[in-house]
Amino acid sequence: MAKVQSSNLGYPRLGEKREWKKALENYWNHKISEEQLLSETKELRLRALKKQQDKGIELIPVGDFSFYDHILDTSITFGIVPKRFNYETGKVDLDTYFEVARGNDGAVASEMTKWFNTNYHYIVPELVDAKPQLTENRALFYYEEAKKELGIDGKPVLVGPITYLKLAKGNDDFKGLLDQLVPLYGQILKELQDAGAKWVQIDEPYLATSFDKEELALFEGVYASFKNVAPDLKIELQTYFESLDYFEEVVKLPVDAIGVDFVHDHGESIEALEKFGFPEDKILAAGVIDGRNVWRADLDAKLGLLERIVKIVPKDRLIVQPSSSLLHVPVTKASEPDLDGVLLGGLSFADEKLVELVALTKALNGEDVTAEFVDAKEALAAINGSHHRNNAEVQEAIRNLENVEVKRDLPFAERIKLQHEWLQLPLLPTTTIGSFPQSPEVRKKRSDWLKKVITDAEYEKFIETETERWIRIQEDLDLDVLVHGEFERTDMVEYFGQKLDGFQATKFGWVQSYGSRAVRPPLVYGDVAFTEAITVKESVYAQSLTDRPVKGMLTAPVTIINWSFVRDDVPDYVVANQVGLALRKEVEALEEAGIRVIQVDEPALREGLPLKHSRWQKYLDDAVYSFKLTTTSVKNDTQIHTHMCYAEFEDIIDTISALDADVISIETSRSHGEIIETFEKVGYDKEIGLGVYDIHSPRVPTTGEIQENIRRALKVIDARQFWVNPDCGLKTRKEKETVEALRDMVNATKEIREAYKVTK
């Protein structure tokens, strides 16, 4: 009988309790040896594989593990290491690997940016002077390890060469580099075939973006070459995160299986399949379980979709899988026994998604899975029918949005004069982005408080003491606009999720953001409502300690929803507007309490752009609206700041201006000042802070490096517009390096102020 198979595309690296993160950081801090690191991570890796095996997944990915990032792994595999790290040839040692990602005393880290439209960051390959060579066959190592240790005949996972090069910088000779890489990939595939591997998964998510149709010829040539060198190895060409603009052509590429996202495709994949059909010599790997969100699947609806698919693709040529790697979701909801039962029933983390995949596969194969389907149906009915998703007041407010004014009273050119009058800041004012180091002591006090080891009063006193200490540090450094440090906050999104109705924090819902940095995205499971002031107490206390202005600090709607797991029963823009209405009340409360500089951060706006250009404008218009819904009710002399993280901003500079924030801070250091090129081309009429040093690296920048970044910016940005700040919050840094770096920043700024006075 024809049989459908189940497959997975990737599994979370972190471990259920962040064991991976702890091992890495212990190694970086010289608490464990390299041998111990390798041992601990191997145990985690094998545990994840065994779990997939035990749950009944038939095609289990191997080689999806990483010590930092899978794009960095690809670079290292081919010896693509920037010259400043003094690499010559051969296998790249682990310390050099980490230095590329994190920098060292003599070399800045490689740029880091978002993986398509997710909150995962990858290390951008630097291809200038690159001479690719195969340094090690990682895929083969992990394939043989799984086979030897667990008897798993796994499916090695590789990042495809075209996607890899498209995500790199310095690839002026794209075709030449591709021609160099293809034989090296071919060697990897040939060695896998010789070792007995039956399948290999090659990820080419670039295929789900907007690109010129002529580029398909590149894929045709590359994958024909791969089939020629390893004819007995089945290649699954994997796409995800969107539908395929050229579905008819992509499914004809010379591979054995095509992986298609049937979740984040706006319904276009099934329409294309029914319109164009599917080749009789290929397997369709249908991504029907959401790999990026945590809500339980409607198994009846998913089965209905699969039944439409099998009318075109026979069962023996169908694989059921997630829409993408499960890297983007937490490990298991079994770690959350304290959650409300209705909410818990509606959740599905990585382990639960494996169960859903197997249930759908069994259903298609005629096995009885009635119990699983009934349980899913009842759980979804319970959460959708709960009062959390039926808040009449919130829903009425959304219906009446047309009556809400979303425009400042005065244009920027007029209100900035009022702000300058009271702020009385020097040329090139200095500030930070918001957070200060979350030291071991801060984390210990929070843990003790949560465990009720210390009282509320004791915890609040500690937060006040730490806030005052850092206010004094900022004054001593002579920063111009201060922040309270956010010592009460675990995370810039999670914190607000703990304070607004409709959100739920988790205990172990960790996902990887970059390197060892893990975040716990809150669950937006119901209608969002403001209940009480969130940040006013801490902001007012900090302002009472100093005569210098202290910024109130909020996270904006689009970032909150992009960095949360958002309910999937209503459109995202509806949730963003609910958040905007709630935060509007918080902004008004801050202003009423005397906080006159308010930063509303939108670091995730650019990363959330749809992969298809045709969907950009709707997304950007919705983002601007929810931001202005949050910020525009303030007085003209209240200064609104915002902040954005690593991204290519040229495409959205008009949107940035449309936000109508008085001051925006943008990262420039890790991308080596490349954002400044945007302002060379288009200009900007509001005030702007360009991050002048990289906070994601432990190295302390020199005054000269910071001055170089400032001077380059001043070539295209008027000094009267320009603020000086680090490129992001400082919570992940240690105190000593933070103070030293900020001192260098302030000193560099003062020297340039003096020089500016002379030259002007």
UniProtKB/TrEMBL annotation:
Keyword hit for Magnesium: no
Residue sites binding Zn(2+) per the record: 643, 645, 667, 728
Binding site for 5-methyltetrahydropteroyltri-L-glutamate: 18-21, 114, 119, 563, 607
Domain of life from the UniProt record: Bacteria
MF terms in GO: 5-methyltetrahydropteroyltriglutamate-homocysteine S-methyltransferase activity; zinc ion binding
Residues binding L-homocysteine, per UniProt: 433-435, 486, 601
Single Gene Ontology BP annotation: methylation
Pfam families named in the record: Meth_synt_1, Meth_synt_2
Family annotation (Gene3D superfamilies): 3.20.20.210
Cofactor note: Binds 1 zinc ion per subunit.
InterPro entries for the chain: Cbl-indep_Met_Synth_N (IPR013215), Cobalamin-indep_Met_synthase (IPR006276), Met_Synth_C/arc (IPR002629), UROD/MetE-like_sf (IPR038071)
Residues in Cobalamin-independent methionine synthase MetE C-terminal/archaeal domain copies: 428-750
Cited CDD domains: CIMS_C_terminal_like, CIMS_N_terminal_like
UniProt catalytic activity: 5-methyltetrahydropteroyltri-L-glutamate + L-homocysteine = tetrahydropteroyltri-L-glutamate + L-methionine
Keyword Cell wall biogenesis/degradation: no
PANTHER family assigned: 5-METHYLTETRAHYDROPTEROYLTRIGLUTAMATE--HOMOCYSTEINE METHYLTRANSFERASE
Role, per record: Catalyzes the transfer of a methyl group from 5-methyltetrahydrofolate to homocysteine resulting in methionine formation.
NCBIfam families in UniProt: met_syn_B12ind, PRK05222.1
Record family assignment: Belongs to the vitamin-B12 independent methionine synthase family.
Protein name as annotated: 5-methyltetrahydropteroyltriglutamate--homocysteine methyltransferase
Species name: Listeria cornellensis FSL F6-0969
